[in-house]
């Protein structure tokens, strides 16, 4: 809209005097409007599309495949990670699915995967397998599978193709091997559980599965009986002159731990500092209540200083020491404790220190 504003002189009448002759300036305006028509349009361009969900349908002939396992596992309590506990336990070829129909068979095949978490890998006969954790303490498993005409393929945590062939019927074989996870094993029974599953796929959809199940796992963990559960070292009274310099030692005192093993086992020991659990040196921390300072306690096995480690029986625990090899029957573990000077300033007083020992068996 456009507005034009101008002026015009015209006489005006004073409302009070009625006199003419005065001029006042009046404003006038003239307005002129413009209108426009705006046309809005939407132009659609494209194609009509649709998607079809691929599908696969099969009759499950064998809903559950149960692996054969030994009635009982007799193993050492502590076995290194990946060490085999059984041979391969084969479940012979069985028809799992029949009357399979695919909407798209270009990516048809059979797949398998584990139902449990992977805790590492292990090599078996040159082939790498994922190790899966079972509910049984210290026991894991590896799996493989194959179809009627194929070769054995390791089964992983994610979908693993055992065959990429389209078929209306699938026959497959499966095998499992129990291996150690490195954690201590426990005597007892673990109820059967689902180890994995097997399905038919078209690359997108899957059929109803065949479950790969474990039977009850029965374990007898071999250990040794500890006949000496508490050991006390009464170190002799010494004078400051017996520890003349930092690193000097005195007052060596021996004690023994008696054990008895029912089967041939290697025995490992870890000694832990009670006052300072994080101590990984060979000098034991003095306990509260000790009045002496500048002195510590060392523990020796076969004349060698023992460094302290965590309170654990897991294979490979830091600072574990092999104390008996191939022991069957009774055995003695001789330890020596002694004073060691740790500082230039040495103060007389009482000395007390506490430690624990943990044994593991392989």
From TrEMBL:
<dbReference type="Pfam" id="PF00419">
    <property type="entry name" value="Fimbrial"/>
</dbReference>
<dbReference type="InterPro" id="IPR050263">
    <property type="entry name" value="Bact_Fimbrial_Adh_Pro"/>
</dbReference>
<dbReference type="InterPro" id="IPR036937">
    <property type="entry name" value="Adhesion_dom_fimbrial_sf"/>
</dbReference>
<protein>
    <recommendedName>
        <fullName>Fimbrial-type adhesion domain-containing protein</fullName>
    </recommendedName>
</protein>
<comment type="similarity">
    <text>Belongs to the fimbrial protein family.</text>
</comment>
<dbReference type="InterPro" id="IPR000259">
    <property type="entry name" value="Adhesion_dom_fimbrial"/>
</dbReference>
<dbReference type="GO" id="GO:0043709">
    <property type="term" value="P:cell adhesion involved in single-species biofilm formation"/>
</dbReference>
<keyword id="KW-0281">Fimbrium</keyword>
<dbReference type="InterPro" id="IPR008966">
    <property type="entry name" value="Adhesion_dom_sf"/>
</dbReference>
<dbReference type="GO" id="GO:0009289">
    <property type="term" value="C:pilus"/>
</dbReference>
<feature type="domain" description="Fimbrial-type adhesion">
    <location>
        <begin position="218"/>
        <end position="361"/>
    </location>
</feature>
